[in-house]
Structures are given as structure tokens and as C-alpha cells.
Specification:
535 residues, 9-stranded mixed beta sheet, 7-stranded beta/alpha barrel, 11 strands, immunoglobulin/albumin-binding domain-like, two-stranded antiparallel ribbon
Length: 535
């Protein structure tokens, strides 16, 4: 009998690359993710490995994030973001004599210098290689995902659209990591029954769904979600345990809400005098988060208590002990119930750790260290679990449609603010699938030049449609501060699609194609036949 727990982190940033401006807020989504989540996470994981602490972690790096981590311009801009924040931090150290925050500012400055050294000298700006190193040593299982984080169940009316998202995502994974993935992260943990066949046909072994996707099914088991289920297509499906995930994730009662932790919202980028921040904020002067925060979540009216790292450390100790003890008790209870070889899967957005929850990376380190001293709890990955139990017989499963969005289904992406998106995407997906099918049937009638032209057009049409399908845009359309940008991005990609569609039927439109290709140099070598007829 084995008692297993699996921590799964999903890291994603939508494609945000704006070379037309020197500095923009949306690109900083990427840079802040690198500085506040990925560099602390990598530093911690390498430290555990060097000290011989046994651990296993599952990580999904979305294809758009992988593409941006490889992009030379964005690497330079991440370094510029680091240096810009370090200059602000140096100003804060000097200003600390007046504000009283000098000690905290010095902590931040030391931390950022350390991360800069790791990014530039230790890993030469190649975080993908650093993660691959941890994979090769057996500490990390890295999964594939859909190309642009498309909400796959809402694209299923045109199966070729889902096929393209999955195939392009796998292709990006193989280019980055040199091998086929075994696991697949469903964007927004969103599942529909038809996805089982798609994923299995593309050579994938397992995925993760929300707990209620398994327990609400007519074909359920008392063991769900604590053992994986096998779909009729032989895809292994793990259930995300709601109770253990909520212990950390829950907005009201989760660990990050403890008043001893750092307050995410009290950032100097929102509070310091605008003239003081002018160099940091850039030409548009739009306020934004800097990562420099001096208060903890404890509040009395409008007054916040000053952040105390020692107090936060005590909270971390309490919460890491509680998490490990709870998982041990949970697994023991499952065994007492007769569940053989249970596994508790806790899945989170990666940016919860380090970015939203400043202390979250240290929380992960502490639970890995504590588990290493016990013999009743092992951290593993879904792939390692299946390999260790390859002779086991798992219950049949037919998960129902579901997601981890608000309400548990797809309401977040079908609201009055964003439902128009899926009509527009379905129309163009049908259009592209039909065009590819007819091109394959009739290509013998075209000249070699026209064949090359149409293949290039199909490749760009596919890419622009993939970029329009990102679930981020629909989500942000419900969020007032980002709604304008999300609508703009969606309409731009749809307009690009329409422009290429017009150019596809005529030679001599290379200038149009060149301009659109250069605007979004992602998936630039995508095969033209991603939308080939789905069978």
C-alpha cells in the first residue's frame, strides 16, 4: 500500500509581445511571473535537490509561456524589468530613512540581486533548460497543454479546432523538451467527454479534471477522486481533490488569507507619489504593481500593520504542519475505507506561489521537507503513480463536462460580456476546416506557387485563430480593468484572420501576410495541416 500526494502547478501567461512600445503593462504580466514565481520556484527546487531532499512536483508550462520564455526580445525585456525594479528598490532603501521601511527594502533588494544572478549567470536566461534539468533528475514531471489556452469544450463543435489546439501544444512541448509528453493539462481544467478520444489519439496517457467531473458522473466510483479512472478510450483521468486544494486556494479560508502574510494589494506602485514612480512606470504613467509591498494583511479600518517576515514564518510553519498532517490523516482514512493506493491531487495556478502569495514558494519547500521525514506520505506525480501501479486495475470513468471556473462549469466564458467570441470563432473554425479539406482534395489542380501560397495562408489563419481562442480574453472581458485590452486582442486576431482569408485566394498578397506574421512571431513553423479533417 502506498500513500501518495501530488502537487500540480499550472503556469500560463497569454501571448503578450509588444515590440512597438518600449514598456507596456501587459508584457509585465510575463516579467512579473518570471521574477515573482519562476525564479523563486526554481531556486527552491534546485536547493532541495542539492540538499538531497526527496520530492516530486508536476508542472505545466503553457505553450504561449514556453514561446515567450524562448523569445530573445522578451528575455532582454525581462532583464530590463529586473533592473528597473532593482533601481526602484535602491531608491526605496534610500527613502527608507523617511518611510521607515529600509529593512524590508533591503530584503527585497538582496532577493532581486540573487534572482538576477540566477537568471543571467546560472541559467543564461534559459528557464526552460533549468526546468528540463529538474525533469531529467526525476524531480519534475512537465505536462503539455493546449496551444493558446483555448477552452476546449467550447471549441468542440468544430473538432478540428480542438485538434489544432492539442497538436500545436504538443508540438511546442516536443520542441522545448525533446520528447513526447505523457500528461496533458486541460486549460481551466475544462473537460468535455469528447476530449477523451482527442487526447488519446494524440498519444497522451493522462489528464486532470475537477472532482465533480468524476463524482457527478453516472459512471462513478466510491474511490473517486482518490484513484484515477479509465475512460472508454483508455485515457487515465485524475480528479483534483477539492478539500485539500481549497485548504490553500479558498479565497476566504485558504492559508494565503492569514493576516500574518504579506498584503498583495498594498504595493508602492499603487500608493507612492506618481512623480516618484515616473521612471519605473514608463511613458504612459499607468500605475501598476511593482512587487514592493510593506504591509501585512492584518487591517483595522484603513490602517495596515507593517509586514513582519518572522511573523509570516510562524504562520508558514503552522500551515505547512497542518497541510501535511491533514493529508496524512486523509490518506489513512481512505485506506481504512478500503481504497487501495490512494492519491490526493492538489492542483493550483503556479502564480499563486510567489506572486499572489509571497510566502507560497516557501510553503511548498516546507511541505516537501516535512514529508521527507515521514514514512506515511510520499509526494509523487501522476505519471510516476501510473508507472508504479501499471498492473493495477482502475475503475471505469466517464467524467462529465466541467471546469474549475466559478460555478464549476463554463459560465465564466459564456457571459453577456464575452459570449459573442465563441460565435465568431466557431464561424471561422468551420470556414478554415472546410478550406483545408477542399485544398487537400483539389491541390493537384494548382501550380506549385499557388500551393505554397495557400499553405502559407492556412498556416497564418490557423495561428491567428489559435491566438483568438485563448480563454484569457473571455475571462478578462468580465474584468473591467482589462476588458478593453482583451476585446482589442480578440478583434485584432479575428481581423487578421479575415485579412489573410481575403489574401488566400489571390497571389501577390505577400506584403499583407508578412505584416501579420511579423506582428505575432509565435508558432512560426506551425505545419499548415493542423486543421486537416478530424476522424
Amino acid at each position: 500500500m502506498s500513500r501518495n500526494c501530488s502537487i500540480v502547478l499550472h503556469a500560463h501567461v497569454p501571448w503578450v509581445r509588444h515590440p512597438e512600445v518600449e514598456h507596456c503593462l501587459e508584457e509585465d504580466w510575463l516579467h512579473s511571473a518570471v521574477v515573482e514565481t519562476h525564479l523563486p520556484l526554481l531556486e527552491m527546487l534546485f536547493r532541495l535537490r542539492e540538499e538531497g531532499v526527496p520530492f516530486k512536483l508536476t508542472l505545466n508550462l503553457s505553450p504561449t509561456l514556453l514561446a515567450m520564455l524562448r523569445d530573445r526580445l522578451l528575455k532582454r525585456r525581462t532583464l530590463a524589468y529586473l533592473d528597473r525594479t532593482l533601481r526602484l528598490c535602491r531608491d526605496e532603501v534610500e527613502r527608507g530613512e523617511i518611510t521607515g521601511f529600509r529593512e524590508l527594502a533591503e530584503i527585497y533588494e538582496d532577493r532581486l540581486h540573487r534572482f538576477r544572478t540566477l537568471f543571467l549567470d546560472e541559467w543564461q536566461g534559459d528557464l526552460i533548460k533549468a526546468y528540463a534539468d529538474l525533469r531529467d533528475s526525476g524531480h519534475l514531471e512537465i505536462t503539455a497543454s493546449a496551444a493558446t489556452h483555448g477552452l476546449l469544450p467550447l471549441l468542440m463543435r468544430v473538432p478540428e479546432a480542438v485538434q489544432a489546439q492539442v497538436r500545436a501544444g504538443i508540438r511546442q512541448y516536443v520542441q522545448c523538451f525533446g520528447r513526447m509528453p505523457k500528461g496533458f493539462w486541460l486549460p481551466e481544467c475544462a473537460y468535455a467527454p469528447a476530449l477523451s478520444q482527442v487526447l488519446k489519439q494524440e498519444g497522451l496517457d493522462w489528464t486532470i479534471v475537477e472532482e465533480h467531473a468524476l463524482t457527478s458522473s453516472s459512471q462513478t466510483s466510491d474511490e473517486f477522486p482518490f484513484v484515477p479512472g479509465a475512460t472508454p478510450d483508455d485515457l487515465m483521468v485524475f480528479g483534483r481533490d477539492q478539500a485539500s486544494s481549497s485548504e490553500v486556494w479558498n479565497a476566504d479560508e485558504g492559508f494565503p488569507g492569514d493576516e500574518r502574510y504579506r498584503d498583495f494589494m498594498r504595493d508602492i506602485g499603487l500608493e507612492a507619489p506618481i512623480e516618484y514612480l515616473r521612471e519605473y512606470l514608463g511613458e504612459n504613467g499607468q500605475r501598476q504593481f511593482t512587487g514592493l509591498k510593506y504591509f501585512r494583511a492584518s487591517r483595522e479600518g484603513d490602517n495596515s500593520a507593517i509586514y513582519d517576515p518572522a511573523l509570516a514564518s510562524r504562520a508558514l510553519e503552522e500551515h505547512s504542519v497542518r497541510f501535511i498532517s491533514s493529508r496524512g490523516a486523509q490518506l489513512a482514512a481512505l485506506e481504512a475505507r478500503g481504497v487501495e493506493n490512494p492519491i490526493v491531487v492538489c492542483a493550483f495556478d503556479a502564480d499563486l506561489f510567489g506572486h499572489w502569495w509571497y510566502e507560497g514558494t516557501e510553503f511548498l519547500e516546507r511541505i516537501f521537507r516535512k514529508a521527507a521525514t515521514r514514512n506515511d506520505l510520499v509526494f509523487t506525480t501522476p505519471g510516476a503513480y501510473l508507472a508504479a501501479h501499471q498492473d493495477a486495475t482502475f475503475p471505469p470513468a466517464s467524467p462529465v463536462s466541467s471546469s474549475w471556473g466559478e460555478g464549476g462549469y463554463f459560465e465564466t466564458w459564456t457571459s453577456t460580456e464575452n459570449h459573442w467570441v465563441y460565435f465568431e470563432m466557431q464561424k471561422r473554425s468551420e470556414q478554415l476546416a472546410r478550406f483545408v479539406r477542399l485544398f487537400e482534395e483539389d491541390r493537384g489542380e494548382f501550380s506549385e506557387k499557388m500551393i505554397a501560397h495557400r499553405q502559407r495562408c492556412i498556416q497564418i489563419l490557423t495561428k491567428e485563430l489559435l491566438l483568438a481562442q485563448s480563454s484569457d480574453w473571455g475571462f478578462l472581458m468580465k474584468n473591467e480593468p482589462s476588458r478593453e485590452y482583451a476585446e482589442k486582442r480578440t478583434r485584432e486576431h479575428l481581423a487578421n484572420f479575415d485579412a489573410v482569408w481575403s489574401a488566400a485566394l489571390h497571389e501577390g498578397e505577400e506584403a499583407v501576410l508578412e505584416e501579420i506574421e511579423q506582428a505575432n512571431p509565435v508558432f512560426s513553423d506551425l505545419p499548415w495541416n493542423m486543421y486537416e479533417p478530424y476522424s
